[in-house]
């Protein structure tokens, strides 16, 4: 179904013009299908594919200007080596041979040192989400080398682990079905910014009579446009879900038939919820009115079909994993899963049954597995790991800007005895600390194959143009490094297209009839799943029991309470009154609309659109500190501080301040950003970062 007709390169009557099928590589649930118009070898236009059902012909502002990114005068075009002190950004041009020979020699020396190859650490994340450039030749390379492993926990691992405990994996409703929902709860998510094409579907549902409810401590662009906004205290979502359960159970709004057939542990959960989570108590925890909770529960229990769009904002807290798990119990209680337009979605990622073993070749790792370093604790790892990290290769990420507790991260990158390579298309905040910088191609210049975490299509990315300058794809850099290291397995000679074929060659039914040759022609194809996909209408959960697990043996085995419970944030005033005496305000730093994490934040067009770093405050909190709209303020805690411009707008609830992010440090006044105050503390599940679990004070300067 929905097969696009056009070929990967559509020739137009003007023979110098072609249209190339591509995929947006950025870390966003929408993973848009793109059409790139190329004239005389130059990309002149990037558009959304009008035939792709989820993209529906439109791209976000950032990506519609993609040619400006690709042809930016700031693009890195040649390898560089550092001249002058780390962090100052002084570099001179070198050849690829010199760059790769230097890197190979340094890696060989580190591997041969007493600490061995574990003194080498890859630092990569999701600058591109294509399977080739995100996790293929690079993983093979580091596995064979025996380097330390990186646990990539910066974004989603708490929620993923929570959902896995309840539903069995990263599965949920088909986002194309939101159009038919009658209630959509947008929970810890700001889709107008972060999931635009989901928002388009929510708008369509609204036109068809649906009610939209936003749950967010902050009146985001999305919350502003919903029918109702429930502004709870940060990190208290699990408690809210338990309060909703209390009402559903005590008012008989549960689907006992569904519960009996398809769930595990209802009796125990019911007992706990009725004993401990009456709406009165929950109202106190969440900072809400009792009526707000009761009415929300009644709406949720009586409107059919009811959908929840859970997203990652709510899980960036110490209790985020259990909160996601608890919320994921709701649709099984009411039987919302029976309808394709009911249920919950955090991520669709596990529907893609790509062959990860073939892509990444974990079998190449030494039998004694190298240690694992948590990405969210990179600052500690670079300053205090034993044995020390002596060499880092950074690609697809900008840790100096995006990792929590920046001053530690910077202290690590400043170490004179740390050999640091950064591969990127731009001279990022992190690249300033590199010994060697390698220029990376952008999505218009390389092959890739994509999954999505917000829809159910596989996409191919065809290169539209030749690499800009001397830039190379990540895969090619690791291929060349592997040859220099003397790695002689065939897998180090696979071409990018070979790897793409291996990725979709798992033989799983969801990839039936999918092959690389036709995928790169068509650009995209839906997984082999029914059009009216209702994944858990008849149970079939992916848990060990095959049921929705209100009671989870797998959590029990990890020493975690097997039943849902409220796991409070670490830095909410109620959790830590002592700390709150010094730092009484909860600090959130969610994404701005015109940056993508720190990507695009270097481009003048998007920086101009965002103005300057701002801190949004409630007028009561501003008045208590003598702060007026437009004042320059400093946000600080024991970890650090940074300055921004106050915007007194009552969008955050009282006690919460919001600094839309993530700015490059080098483009701010004091070369600091939100991560100067965030902590390296990890969440209850998945070792995840807790960016939004952060107390601060604010002063006028
Ligand atoms: N334009 C744009 N799009 C993006 C990104 C971007 O940087 N820019 N980033 C991409 C990436 S990597 C990701 S992970 C997603 C993230 O996108 P989302 O999953 O939507 O998550 P966030 O943007 O982190 O936060 C969304 C909302 O959660 C709220 N929030 C914070 N704490 C809590 C809480 O405790 N409870 C509740 N209920 N709400 C809370 C914030 O105020 C914010 O409005 O977006 C992707 N899309
Ligand atoms: N305070 C605060 N901090 C946050 C967040 C927040 O909301 N608030 N969000 C967190 C979240 S959800 C996430 S996902 C992380 C994201 O953090 P990162 O994954 O580091 O994402 P970006 O900041 O976009 O940096 C990606 C870099 O990869 C580069 N890149 C893109 N494609 C390629 C390629 O093909 N090859 C190479 N070599 N490089 C490439 C880009 O140019 C860019 O510099 O940040 C986290 N940090
Ligand atoms: Mo993310």
Annotation keywords:
701 residues; alpha/beta; six-stranded mixed sheet; 27 helices; 28 strands; 18% strand; globular; disordered N terminus; binds ligand MGD; binds molybdenum atom
Could you explain how this protein is built, in words?
This protein is an alpha/beta fold and 701 residues long. Strand 25 (632-637) and strand 26 form a beta hairpin. Helix 3 crosses helix 21, helix 10 runs antiparallel to helix 13 (279-286) and helix 10 (237-250) runs parallel beside helix 15 (320-327). It starts with 8 loop residues before the first strand and ends with a strand. One ligand MGD is lined by residues 27, 125-128, 133, 154-155, 395-398, 401-402, 423-426, 428, 440, 474, 589-591, 596-599, 661-662, 674-675, 678, 691. Residues 27-28, 155, 187-190, 193-194, 215-218, 220, 234-235, 237, 311-314, 317, 588, 590-591, 593, 595-597, 692 line the site of one ligand MGD.
Q: Helices, strands, pairings?
A:
Blueprint: E1 9-11, E2 17-23, E3 33-39, E4 42-48, H1 61-64, H2 66-70, E5 80-82, E6 91-93, H3 96-112, E7 120-124, H4 131-134, H5 137-145, E8 149-151, H6 157-167, E9 183-187, H7 191-194, H8 196-207, E10 211-215, H9 221-225, E11 228-230, H10 237-250, H11 256-262, E12 263-264, H12 266-276, H13 279-286, H14 290-302, E13 306-310, H15 320-327, H16 330-334, E14 343-345, H17 356-360, E15 372-374, H18 378-384, E16 391-395, H19 399-402, H20 406-413, E17 419-424, E18 436-439, E19 448-450, E20 457-461, H21 474-485, H22 496-503, H23 516-522, E21 524-526, E22 548-549, H24 553-557, H25 577-582, E23 585-588, H26 604-610, E24 614-617, H27 619-624, E25 632-637, E26 640-648, E27 656-658, E28 695-700
Parallel strand pairs: 7-16, 8-15, 9-10, 9-13, 10-11, 12-22, 13-14, 16-17, 17-18, 23-27, 24-26
Antiparallel strand pairs: 1-2, 2-3, 3-4, 5-6, 5-18, 19-20, 20-21, 23-28, 25-26, 25-28
Helix pairs in contact: 3-21, 6-15, 10-13, 10-14, 10-15, 13-14, 18-20
Bound molecules: ligand MGD (2 copies) and molybdenum atom.
Molybdenum atom (MO) binds near residues 27, 155 and 312.
């Amino acid at each position: 179904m929905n097969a696009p007709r056009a070929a990967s390169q559509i020739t137009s009557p003007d023979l110098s013009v072609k249209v190339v099928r591509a995929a947006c590589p950025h870390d966003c649930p929408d993973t848009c299908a793109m059409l790139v118009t190329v004239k005389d070898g130059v990309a002149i236009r990037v558009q959304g594919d009008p035939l792709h059902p989820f993209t529906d012909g439109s791209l976000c502002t950032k990506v519609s200007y993609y040619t400006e990114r690709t042809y930016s005068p700031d693009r890195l075009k040649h390898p560089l080596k550092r001249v002058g002190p780390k962090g100052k950004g002084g570099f001179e041009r070198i050849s690829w041979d010199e760059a790769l020979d230097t890197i190979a020699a340094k890696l060989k020396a580190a591997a041969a040192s007493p600490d061995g190859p574990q003194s080498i650490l890859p630092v990569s994340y999701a600058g591109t989400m294509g399977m080739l450039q995100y996790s293929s030749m690079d993983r093979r390379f580091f596995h064979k080398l025996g380097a330390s492993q990186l646990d990539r926990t910066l974004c989603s691992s708490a929620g993923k682990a929570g959902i896995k405990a309840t539903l069995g994996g990263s599965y949920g409703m088909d986002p194309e079905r939101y159009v038919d929902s009658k209630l959509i709860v947008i929970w810890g998510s700001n889709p107008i910014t972060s999931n635009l094409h989901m928002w388009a579907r929510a708008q369509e549902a609204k036109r068809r009579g649906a009610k939209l409810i936003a749950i967010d401590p902050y009146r985001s662009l999305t919350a502003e446009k919903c029918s109702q906004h429930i502004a709870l205290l940060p990190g208290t979502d699990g408690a809210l879900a338990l309060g909703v359960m209390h009402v559903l159970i005590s008012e008989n709004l549960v689907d006992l038939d569904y519960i009996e057939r398809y769930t595990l542990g209802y009796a125990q959960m019911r007992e706990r919820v009725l004993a401990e989570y009456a709406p009165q108590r929950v109202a106190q925890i969440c900072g809400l009115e009792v009526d707000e909770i009761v009415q929300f529960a009644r709406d949720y229990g009586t409107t059919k079909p009811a959908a929840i769009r859970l997203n990652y904002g709510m899980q960036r807290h110490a209790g985020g994993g259990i909160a996601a798990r608890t919320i994921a119990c709701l649709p099984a209680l009411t039987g919302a899963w029976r309808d394709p337009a009911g249920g919950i979605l955090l991520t669709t990622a596990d529907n893609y049954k790509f062959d990860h073993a073939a892509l990444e070749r974990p079998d190449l790792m030494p039998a004694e597995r190298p240690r694992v370093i948590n990405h969210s604790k990179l600052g500690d790892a670079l300053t205090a790991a034993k044995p020390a990290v002596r060499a880092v290769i950074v690609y697809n990420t900008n840790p100096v800007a995006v990792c929590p507790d920046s001053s530690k991260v910077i202290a690590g990158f400043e170490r004179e005895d740390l050999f640091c390579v950064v591969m990127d298309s731009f001279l990022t905040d992190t690249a300033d600390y590199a010994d060697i910088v390698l220029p990376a191609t952008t999505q218009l210049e390389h092959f890739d194959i994509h999954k999505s975490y917000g829809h159910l299509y596989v996409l191919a990315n065809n290169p539209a143009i030749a690499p800009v300058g001397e830039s190379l794809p990540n895969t090619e850099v690791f291929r060349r490094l592997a040859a220099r290291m003397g790695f002689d397995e065939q897998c180090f000679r696979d071409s990018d297209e070979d790897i793409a074929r291996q990725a979709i060659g798992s033989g799983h039914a969801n990839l039936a009839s999918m092959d690389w040759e036709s995928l790169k022609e068509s650009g995209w194809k839906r997984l082999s799943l029914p059009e009216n996909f209702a994944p858990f209408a008849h149970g079939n959960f992916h848990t060990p029991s095959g049921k929705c697990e209100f009671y989870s043996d797998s959590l029990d085995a990890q020493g975690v309470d097997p039943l849902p419970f409220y796991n409070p944030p670490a830095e909410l005033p109620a959790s830590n009154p002592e700390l709150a005496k010094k730092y009484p305000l909860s600090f959130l730093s969610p994404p701005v609309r015109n940056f993508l994490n720190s990507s695009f934040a270097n481009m003048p067009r998007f920086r101009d659109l965002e103005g300057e770093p701002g801190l949004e405050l409630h007028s009561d909190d501003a008045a208590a500190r003598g702060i007026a709209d437009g004042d320059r303020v400093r946000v600080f805690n024991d970890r650090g501080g940074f300055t921004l411009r106050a915007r007194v707008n009552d969008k955050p609830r009282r006690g919460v301040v919001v600094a839309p992010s993530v700015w490059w440090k080098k483009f701010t006044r004091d070369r600091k950003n939100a991560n100067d105050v965030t902590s390296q503390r990890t969440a209850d599940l998945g070792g995840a970062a807790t960016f939004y679990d952060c107390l601060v004070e604010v002063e006028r300067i």
